[in-house]
Write a structure and sequence with these properties.
A seven-stranded parallel sheet has the order 1-2-3-4-5-6-7. The protein is α/β, with parallel strands linked by helices and 214 residues long. Helix 3 links the parallel strand 2 and strand 3.
Length: 214
């Protein structure tokens, strides 16, 4: 069973390009759910260039009101608090503070940094991962399912399982750029199969659209 969660970041990016609240992120979340989406995803960054901290509570409440709609918050677990970027926009409390405040169905941890335009790689788990492991344990204590953003690297995926992640999300940027590359698609398939075999749930995301999703 494949479930579709729609990322609203770009809707928020357009809204933030001018004054006012158009397009309305909450309204678009409702439209996605009504159209048949199984979940809503947001990636609140410290600079709040698209989804803002103040968007999170209303979106969480909307998803909670609708039956079987998953709310997924993704981001760097070590992103610290930041002051309000301008009047009318709330301060960023830190990523884990946002997660703890709303306790979404799922939290997807992503190794991005403030300078990145968008997420462009998965976690490298080859070194010490004590702090990341603590975050995974914290999510479990909050009753929030965890997912680690990963490249289709089998050994790295095995390490994600050993750290205690509930799921992985395969970073599909390279596939989306080359959807006709059969060898690359096979690499993703094999990574997903290994993840499933060792007990990890499998998500996939980045630049997936109506042309390459099939």
């Amino acid at each position: 069973m494949i479930a579709l969660s729609v990322n609203l970041n770009k809707i928020a990016l357009i809204r933030n390009s001018r004054e006012g609240n158009h397009p309305d992120v909450l309204s678009y979340a409702e439209r996605c759910i009504t159209a048949g989406a199984d979940g809503i995803t947001v990636h609140p960054r410290p600079d709040q260039r698209h989804i803002r901290a103040q968007d999170i509570q209303p979106l969480a409440k909307l998803c909670a009101r609708r039956q079987n709609i998953e709310f997924n918050i993704e981001g760097n677990p070590f992103a610290a608090s930041e002051p309000a970027p301008r009047p009318g926009v709330s301060a960023y409390p830190g990523f884990m503070a946002l997660v703890e405040a709303v306790r979404p169905d799922q939290c997807t941890l992503v190794p991005d940094n403030p300078e990145q335009l968008t997420s462009d790689h998965g976690f490298d788990l080859s070194g010490s991962n004590r702090e990341l492991q603590k975050v995974l344990q914290q999510l479990r204590s909050l009753g929030v399912r965890s997912s680690l953003f990963m490249d289709p690297d089998v050994e790295q995926i095995r390490r994600a399982a050993r750290l205690g992640a509930d799921r992985i999300e395969l970073y599909t940027g390279p596939y989306a750029a080359n959807p006709d590359d059969k060898a690359l698609l096979k690499k993703y398939w094999e990574a997903a199969q290994v993840a499933a075999d060792i007990g990890l749930g499998v998500n996939a995301g980045h630049d997936l659209n109506l042309d390459n999703l099939r």
